[in-house]
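Hi support team,

I submitted a single chain yesterday and got back a structure, but I'm not sure I'm reading the C-alpha coordinate output correctly. Could someone confirm the output below corresponds to the sequence I sent? I've pasted both exactly as they appear in my results page.

Thanks,
R.
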Amino acid sequence: MMRALYTAASGMKAGQTNVDTIANNLSNVNTNGYKTTRTEFKSLLYQTIQTRTTSANGEEKPVGAQVGLGTRVASTTTMYTQGSMNASESATDFALDGEGFFAVRGADGETYYTRNGNFTWAIDAAGRTMLTDVEGCPVMDRNGNAIYVPDGVTAERMVFQQDGRIAYKNAEGEFVDMNQQFGIYQFNNPSGLEKLSFSRLQVSEASGQPMLEGTNGTIPSKVCQFYLEGSNVQVADEMVNMIIAQRAYEMNSKAIQTADSMLQTANELKR
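Hi R., thanks for writing in. Yes, this is the structure output for that exact sequence:
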Protein backbone atom coordinates (compact mmCIF):
# COMPACT_ATOMS: atom_id res chain seq x y z
CA MET A 1 0.00 0.00 0.00
CA MET A 2 2.88 2.35 0.69
CA ARG A 3 4.14 1.49 -2.78
CA ALA A 4 0.85 2.75 -4.20
CA LEU A 5 1.30 6.10 -2.46
CA TYR A 6 4.71 6.75 -3.98
CA THR A 7 3.69 5.38 -7.38
CA ALA A 8 0.62 7.60 -7.61
CA ALA A 9 2.62 10.58 -6.34
CA SER A 10 5.11 10.11 -9.19
CA GLY A 11 2.19 10.09 -11.61
CA MET A 12 0.89 13.36 -10.17
CA LYS A 13 4.32 15.02 -10.47
CA ALA A 14 4.70 13.88 -14.08
CA GLY A 15 1.12 14.93 -14.80
CA GLN A 16 1.81 18.40 -13.43
CA THR A 17 4.75 18.77 -15.83
CA ASN A 18 2.50 17.67 -18.67
CA VAL A 19 -0.11 20.28 -17.74
CA ASP A 20 2.63 22.95 -17.47
CA THR A 21 3.87 22.06 -20.96
CA ILE A 22 0.39 22.20 -22.47
CA ALA A 23 -0.28 25.53 -20.76
CA ASN A 24 2.94 26.95 -22.22
CA ASN A 25 1.88 25.79 -25.69
CA LEU A 26 -1.48 27.50 -25.34
CA SER A 27 0.08 30.70 -23.99
CA ASN A 28 2.33 30.88 -27.08
CA VAL A 29 -0.37 30.21 -29.63
CA ASN A 30 0.20 33.72 -31.08
CA THR A 31 4.01 33.76 -30.71
CA ASN A 32 5.76 34.05 -34.08
CA GLY A 33 7.86 31.00 -34.91
CA TYR A 34 6.88 29.10 -31.74
CA LYS A 35 7.00 25.31 -31.96
CA THR A 36 4.73 23.14 -29.85
CA THR A 37 6.26 20.92 -27.18
CA ARG A 38 5.11 17.45 -26.15
CA THR A 39 5.86 15.76 -22.82
CA GLU A 40 7.25 12.22 -23.04
CA PHE A 41 7.04 9.77 -20.14
CA LYS A 42 8.90 6.65 -19.12
CA SER A 43 8.29 4.02 -16.46
CA LEU A 44 10.46 3.76 -13.36
CA LEU A 45 12.16 0.63 -12.03
CA TYR A 46 10.14 -2.53 -11.50
CA GLN A 47 10.23 -4.46 -8.24
CA THR A 48 10.41 -8.23 -8.63
CA ILE A 49 8.10 -9.99 -6.18
CA GLN A 50 8.50 -13.49 -7.60
CA THR A 51 10.80 -14.89 -10.24
CA ARG A 52 9.90 -17.66 -12.66
CA THR A 53 11.49 -20.31 -10.43
CA THR A 54 10.00 -19.49 -7.00
CA SER A 55 7.18 -22.01 -6.90
CA ALA A 56 6.97 -24.12 -3.73
CA ASN A 57 8.18 -27.34 -5.38
CA GLY A 58 10.91 -25.65 -7.43
CA GLU A 59 9.15 -25.99 -10.78
CA GLU A 60 9.77 -23.29 -13.30
CA LYS A 61 6.87 -20.87 -13.67
CA PRO A 62 6.05 -19.42 -17.11
CA VAL A 63 6.03 -15.84 -15.83
CA GLY A 64 7.24 -13.93 -12.81
CA ALA A 65 5.61 -11.16 -10.79
CA GLN A 66 6.80 -7.57 -11.06
CA VAL A 67 5.24 -4.37 -9.79
CA GLY A 68 6.01 -1.01 -11.35
CA LEU A 69 7.11 1.90 -9.20
CA GLY A 70 5.57 4.75 -11.17
CA THR A 71 6.55 7.11 -13.95
CA ARG A 72 8.64 10.16 -14.62
CA VAL A 73 9.13 12.72 -17.38
CA ALA A 74 11.62 11.45 -19.96
CA SER A 75 11.77 14.59 -22.09
CA THR A 76 9.84 17.49 -23.54
CA THR A 77 10.11 17.11 -27.31
CA THR A 78 9.66 20.08 -29.62
CA MET A 79 7.75 19.43 -32.84
CA TYR A 80 9.41 21.44 -35.64
CA THR A 81 6.60 21.30 -38.15
CA GLN A 82 5.91 24.26 -40.42
CA GLY A 83 3.69 26.98 -38.94
CA SER A 84 1.15 28.99 -40.87
CA MET A 85 2.29 31.84 -43.10
CA ASN A 86 0.70 35.08 -41.91
CA ALA A 87 0.80 38.08 -44.24
CA SER A 88 2.43 41.25 -42.91
CA GLU A 89 2.75 44.83 -44.12
CA SER A 90 6.30 45.26 -42.80
CA ALA A 91 9.18 44.91 -45.27
CA THR A 92 11.39 43.58 -42.46
CA ASP A 93 9.13 40.64 -41.61
CA PHE A 94 10.41 37.31 -42.93
CA ALA A 95 9.14 33.75 -42.73
CA LEU A 96 11.15 30.65 -43.54
CA ASP A 97 9.48 27.98 -45.65
CA GLY A 98 11.70 25.02 -44.84
CA GLU A 99 13.80 23.61 -42.02
CA GLY A 100 16.21 26.50 -41.55
CA PHE A 101 16.81 28.96 -38.72
CA PHE A 102 17.85 32.61 -38.82
CA ALA A 103 21.04 33.49 -36.93
CA VAL A 104 21.31 36.50 -34.60
CA ARG A 105 24.20 37.72 -32.47
CA GLY A 106 23.32 38.26 -28.82
CA ALA A 107 24.61 41.02 -26.58
CA ASP A 108 27.14 38.53 -25.19
CA GLY A 109 28.64 38.00 -28.64
CA GLU A 110 27.27 34.47 -28.97
CA THR A 111 25.25 33.31 -31.99
CA TYR A 112 21.66 32.22 -31.41
CA TYR A 113 19.05 30.83 -33.76
CA THR A 114 15.37 31.56 -34.27
CA ARG A 115 12.38 30.93 -36.50
CA ASN A 116 10.91 34.31 -35.57
CA GLY A 117 11.62 36.59 -38.51
CA ASN A 118 10.06 39.70 -36.95
CA PHE A 119 13.02 41.98 -37.71
CA THR A 120 13.47 45.74 -37.85
CA TRP A 121 16.00 48.41 -38.79
CA ALA A 122 18.08 49.89 -35.96
CA ILE A 123 20.92 52.40 -35.63
CA ASP A 124 24.17 51.06 -34.16
CA ALA A 125 26.74 52.97 -32.11
CA ALA A 126 28.49 54.13 -35.29
CA GLY A 127 25.28 55.57 -36.70
CA ARG A 128 24.84 52.88 -39.36
CA THR A 129 21.49 51.26 -40.10
CA MET A 130 21.47 47.49 -39.57
CA LEU A 131 18.90 44.72 -39.54
CA THR A 132 18.12 43.44 -36.03
CA ASP A 133 15.52 41.43 -34.16
CA VAL A 134 13.05 43.20 -31.89
CA GLU A 135 15.58 43.04 -29.02
CA GLY A 136 18.20 44.92 -31.07
CA CYS A 137 20.44 41.92 -31.79
CA PRO A 138 21.99 41.97 -35.28
CA VAL A 139 20.79 39.46 -37.87
CA MET A 140 23.73 37.56 -39.35
CA ASP A 141 24.60 36.83 -42.97
CA ARG A 142 26.29 33.67 -44.26
CA ASN A 143 29.70 34.97 -43.21
CA GLY A 144 28.64 35.89 -39.67
CA ASN A 145 28.49 39.61 -40.40
CA ALA A 146 25.70 42.06 -39.61
CA ILE A 147 23.46 43.25 -42.46
CA TYR A 148 23.86 47.02 -43.00
CA VAL A 149 22.15 49.49 -45.32
CA PRO A 150 24.83 50.88 -47.67
CA ASP A 151 25.81 54.52 -47.28
CA GLY A 152 23.65 56.81 -49.37
CA VAL A 153 20.84 54.27 -49.58
CA THR A 154 17.58 54.35 -47.62
CA ALA A 155 16.20 51.25 -45.92
CA GLU A 156 13.10 51.40 -48.15
CA ARG A 157 15.28 50.63 -51.19
CA MET A 158 16.64 47.38 -49.75
CA VAL A 159 15.58 44.24 -51.62
CA PHE A 160 15.47 40.70 -50.21
CA GLN A 161 15.08 37.72 -52.51
CA GLN A 162 13.57 34.31 -51.77
CA ASP A 163 16.96 32.62 -51.82
CA GLY A 164 18.12 35.00 -49.08
CA ARG A 165 20.27 37.22 -51.27
CA ILE A 166 20.30 40.93 -50.43
CA ALA A 167 20.41 43.84 -52.87
CA TYR A 168 19.25 47.44 -53.17
CA LYS A 169 17.88 49.77 -55.82
CA ASN A 170 20.10 52.64 -56.87
CA ALA A 171 18.89 56.08 -57.92
CA GLU A 172 18.30 54.81 -61.47
CA GLY A 173 16.07 52.00 -60.20
CA GLU A 174 18.61 49.30 -61.01
CA PHE A 175 19.21 46.36 -58.68
CA VAL A 176 22.67 46.25 -57.13
CA ASP A 177 23.76 42.97 -55.56
CA MET A 178 25.42 43.48 -52.16
CA ASN A 179 27.11 40.04 -52.28
CA GLN A 180 25.36 39.26 -49.00
CA GLN A 181 22.88 36.56 -48.10
CA PHE A 182 20.91 35.66 -45.00
CA GLY A 183 22.73 33.19 -42.78
CA ILE A 184 20.24 30.33 -42.52
CA TYR A 185 21.23 27.14 -40.70
CA GLN A 186 19.89 23.65 -40.14
CA PHE A 187 20.58 21.02 -37.47
CA ASN A 188 20.72 17.26 -37.47
CA ASN A 189 18.49 17.21 -34.39
CA PRO A 190 16.63 20.51 -33.96
CA SER A 191 14.70 19.06 -31.01
CA GLY A 192 18.01 19.06 -29.13
CA LEU A 193 18.31 22.86 -29.31
CA GLU A 194 18.13 24.57 -25.94
CA LYS A 195 15.25 27.03 -25.68
CA LEU A 196 15.90 30.54 -24.43
CA SER A 197 13.73 33.62 -24.02
CA PHE A 198 12.74 35.89 -26.92
CA SER A 199 12.14 32.83 -29.19
CA ARG A 200 15.87 32.14 -29.37
CA LEU A 201 17.54 28.76 -29.52
CA GLN A 202 21.04 27.75 -28.47
CA VAL A 203 23.26 25.00 -29.81
CA SER A 204 23.74 21.99 -27.55
CA GLU A 205 25.50 18.64 -27.80
CA ALA A 206 22.14 17.01 -28.54
CA SER A 207 21.36 19.34 -31.48
CA GLY A 208 24.71 19.00 -33.21
CA GLN A 209 26.60 21.84 -34.83
CA PRO A 210 24.80 24.27 -37.17
CA MET A 211 25.00 23.49 -40.87
CA LEU A 212 24.86 26.39 -43.30
CA GLU A 213 22.06 25.77 -45.76
CA GLY A 214 23.21 24.52 -49.12
CA THR A 215 26.01 22.47 -47.52
CA ASN A 216 26.05 18.89 -46.22
CA GLY A 217 23.12 18.00 -48.46
CA THR A 218 20.72 20.43 -46.78
CA ILE A 219 17.80 21.76 -48.80
CA PRO A 220 17.69 25.58 -48.68
CA SER A 221 14.66 27.23 -47.13
CA LYS A 222 12.64 29.85 -48.96
CA VAL A 223 12.76 33.35 -47.45
CA CYS A 224 9.27 34.88 -47.66
CA GLN A 225 9.29 38.65 -47.19
CA PHE A 226 6.10 40.35 -45.92
CA TYR A 227 5.20 37.16 -44.04
CA LEU A 228 5.66 35.88 -40.50
CA GLU A 229 5.57 32.22 -39.51
CA GLY A 230 2.87 31.67 -36.93
CA SER A 231 2.90 29.16 -34.11
CA ASN A 232 2.26 25.53 -35.05
CA VAL A 233 0.18 25.01 -31.89
CA GLN A 234 -3.17 23.35 -32.62
CA VAL A 235 -5.55 24.74 -30.01
CA ALA A 236 -8.11 21.95 -30.34
CA ASP A 237 -5.46 19.27 -29.89
CA GLU A 238 -3.97 21.05 -26.88
CA MET A 239 -7.37 21.38 -25.21
CA VAL A 240 -7.98 17.65 -25.68
CA ASN A 241 -4.51 16.93 -24.26
CA MET A 242 -5.32 19.21 -21.32
CA ILE A 243 -8.45 17.21 -20.53
CA ILE A 244 -6.56 13.92 -20.77
CA ALA A 245 -3.79 15.25 -18.52
CA GLN A 246 -6.34 16.50 -15.98
CA ARG A 247 -8.08 13.12 -15.89
CA ALA A 248 -4.77 11.34 -15.38
CA TYR A 249 -3.90 13.71 -12.53
CA GLU A 250 -7.29 13.09 -10.90
CA MET A 251 -6.91 9.31 -11.20
CA ASN A 252 -3.50 9.40 -9.51
CA SER A 253 -4.97 11.57 -6.78
CA LYS A 254 -7.78 9.04 -6.34
CA ALA A 255 -5.20 6.23 -6.07
CA ILE A 256 -3.49 8.09 -3.21
CA GLN A 257 -6.83 8.56 -1.45
CA THR A 258 -7.63 4.86 -1.86
CA ALA A 259 -4.22 3.76 -0.55
CA ASP A 260 -4.61 6.13 2.41
CA SER A 261 -8.04 4.68 3.19
CA MET A 262 -6.66 1.14 3.06
CA LEU A 263 -3.84 2.07 5.44
CA GLN A 264 -6.38 3.61 7.81
CA THR A 265 -8.43 0.42 7.74
CA ALA A 266 -5.34 -1.67 8.48
CA ASN A 267 -4.40 0.56 11.39
CA GLU A 268 -7.87 0.18 12.87
CA LEU A 269 -7.59 -3.63 12.97
CA LYS A 270 -5.58 -3.51 16.21
CA ARG A 271 -8.29 -1.60 18.05
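A quick pointer for reading it: The chain has two domains: 2-78+233-268, 85-229. Let us know if anything else looks off.

Best,
Support desk
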